[in-house]
Design brief:
- This protein is α/β, with parallel strands linked by helices and 408 residues long.
- The protein has one domain: TIM Barrel.
- Helix content is 41%, strand content 19%.
- It has twelve helices and 13 strands.
- The strands form three sheets. Strands 1, 2, 3, 4, 5, 6, 7, 8 and 9 form a nine-stranded mixed beta sheet that branches. The protein has a two-stranded antiparallel ribbon with strand order 10-13. A two-stranded antiparallel ribbon has the order 11-12.
- Helix 10 runs parallel beside helix 11 and helix 10 packs across helix 12.
Length: 408
Amino acid sequence: FPLLWGSAICDYQAFGGARCDLPLRWTAKHVEYYREDFKLLLKMNHNAWRTSIEWARIEPEEGKISKDAINFYHNYFSELRKTGLKTWVTLHHFTNPQWIHDHKGWLSERVVKKFVEYVELVVKEFGEYIDYAVVINEPQIYALNAYLGGLSPDSAFPPFHNDMGEGLSCISSMIRALNESFDVIHSNAKNVKVGISNYCAIFVPQDPKNEAHKASADLANQVLNYQVLDGIKDKMDYCGIDYYYKFFMKEDNTVADQTVYPEGLRMLATDLYKRYGKPVTVIENGFPTRDHDEKIKFMVEHLKEYHDAIKLDKVKALGYNWWCTLHSYEWGYNYQPFFALVDVEGEEKDVGGYIDLVGSLKRKITPAGEFYGKICKNNGFSQKDYQKYHAMKKPFKKWQTFGEEKPP
């Protein structure tokens, strides 16, 4: 390969206790168990890892910086640095301080300015611990969920609007924030490489002969795959890809169906490398199931395509991060989806109007986590392993099929 091999978590989804613009959750309580979790990363032979910093912890009230949060993150990153892992650190992963909505949220120049100030504070405080800054996670998906009605009602974010003009304005605001943040980071921490995690997919018309279907696929491709990257291409140091699915588009920019399509990872990596000339990295790639053979099949099929992009298409690549490390909250679906390499023992329970993970929270590396650990250690997998999982006839479940029973 060779690659930076890792996995990923997000503050709101896994840390617990974030008082932001979404309900308070404790989820996997990584905020308490992080030392134990770091040891699990080493057991899985990671040489890199993606984590995040929560803006709402740093600045819970406008203009008031939390000393407790600063101290926590110093302790946290100091412990993480002891592992020797390279770090991918996300600075905005869908959540915000509640107070930004007093200023029209990401439609406001004031919020853009405040975000850049937050980034400057973070890089001055923690820049020594950051190798790669993932400044904003999936800007176009944030805009979709906050200002365009959401992928579904359950996955929508504040302010829960549905207005095309506001959605486009949000994306424009985030592009400005990214370019200004890149300048701030480059000025204050020259060791830190900057970019984003860009949600990417393969979009095709459901009916290739239908002009409305083709128009929907073309628009989705431009807005989701290219729009933000086009706006930051001159200042980003790497091109970050989040890849999960191929979508079949119909009229009115709606999705008719979707499917797992490993070949799409090679197509996107090659296309984006040629388009931008920046090293490509897979920031997220994963599949939700407790069928570990199925999960491993997804893993090796996609890594085979990534390998072909690198070796055959001459794509310069940095790394690969499986989504996700710990079983934790998933946007709009609570704790049903099981993307994780590490199980966290607990059950979904209503804890006062929202669902949280309640139980011992005991960690256990899954068979898929053990297999991925071998990939990390060996910098790849054998032809024998590939043939074994490639030959499996199991059809991949659809994304929506999350309601799996835990095996006995």
